[in-house]
Amino acid sequence: MAKPETKDQILNAAEDLFAEQGFAATSxxxxxxxxxxxxxxxxYHFGSKDDLAKAVLQRRIxxxxxxxxxxxxxxxxxxxxxxIVRAFIEPALRNQQxxxxxxxxxxxxxxxxxxxxxxxxxxxxxxxxxxxxxGELGKRFVAMLSEAAPGIAAETLWWRMHFTVGAxxxxxxxxxVVGQVSLGACDANDHEGxxxxxxxxxIGGFSAAEVxx
Amino acid sequence: MAKPETKDQILNAAEDLFAEQGFAATSxxxxxxxxxxxxxxxxYHFGSKDDLAKAVLQRRIxxxxxxxxxxxxxxxxxxxxxxIVRAFIEPALRNQQxxxxxxxxxxxxxxxxxxxxxxxxxxxxxxxxxxxxxGELGKRFVAMLSEAAPGIAAETLWWRMHFTVGAxxxxxxxxxVVGQVSLGACDANDHEGxxxxxxxxxIGGFSAAEVxx
DNA sequence: GTCTATAGTCAGATAGAC
DNA sequence: GTCTATCTGACTATAGAC
Lengths: 213, 213
Prior knowledge:
With 213 residues, chain A is mainly α. The first copy, chain A, has a domain at 61-207: Tetracycline Repressor, domain 2, CATH 1.10.357.10. The first copy, chain A, has helices spanning 5-21, 28-35, 39-46, 49-73, 81-93, 107-118, 124-148, 154-181, 191-207. Chains A and B meet through α7, α8 and α9 of A and α7, α8 and α9 of B.
């Protein structure tokens, strides 16, 4: 193997461009040009555009969910709503530094936007992929939340996780818009501040009284 | 004008297909075939695919924001967080019945998904369009929320509105996935139930204590 | 206003030399 | 593994008959 970098360069470019423009709007030509590799390399290494998208996702979601599992494993008993919510949100929102060679830290921002996009754009395989990757972990989160908030039905907890995902995804995908529409009141570049705001909001949402039937 | 319906049929088809597949993934060919009109009619009536998307949005967002303004106008003093949150969410989530001829009520569900998609897919003109349509109204919402929750900074209120939009958009766009991932615990077809869940979550989020600095 | 026909462009994918 | 060259098909948009 002459250049082991080619595959990673394609993945990096795909991550950047899918995050910026979305999946359907990004062409393989643009993508491979951006990666500095030949057009044919994308299909050679990944088979199809769809499978390339899957590979991009898998590389990113896996470590996030691994960290979530670890934090659930190490959680003190009984767990608090706050600790569970943070275990859910923080791994996704913080720029996680992986192997620094392949993934310079400047890539962190792009990653955030990517995660926002894919939670939303829905060529069906993406949705199924998310379900596979998250189904079992979601059950663990709901189970722990049930312990921490005994008055709340599982159905309600599932809904609230769903809403939290939405708030997360929208924040990640459109963080740059918040500052604009709020006329500068919000600073989207302050990642820790954004994280605190989102965490507080989600904790409030999870702590709300059960809805009336 | 032989058929005054053509324009509306194109708008209806565009709404359905953009909601199902997204903007970039929907072709004018598919769209006009679905509408039962000629391919050229789309460009004749709307000039371009982009402008067609704008027309679809405008037809739907305008009445929602009109209802929001009315509800803010008629709000009792002092307003409660709950009333404001409901004035924000309900017009967007409820299937609003407009002129029944052009828009059969069966179209309501599709509309919801469309609104979810567009808040998220971001050919730039869409984002700008949303800012234009919502900037002034957003200011009114933040101002009222400041009255109802005097301890919360405007910045925090803007963030919380942003998160609420995200939860709303994700719920509308991906409502069908909730039932699946929760293994049937959540019923996405129960629109009033979903609305209650979302409202309770958002009220909880807005009622959370101010984040520490 | 509505249609057919087509121009002009760009897409994803592949064959085959190196 | 990498490249050039190309196939095949789909797209948006428009010109021009009716």
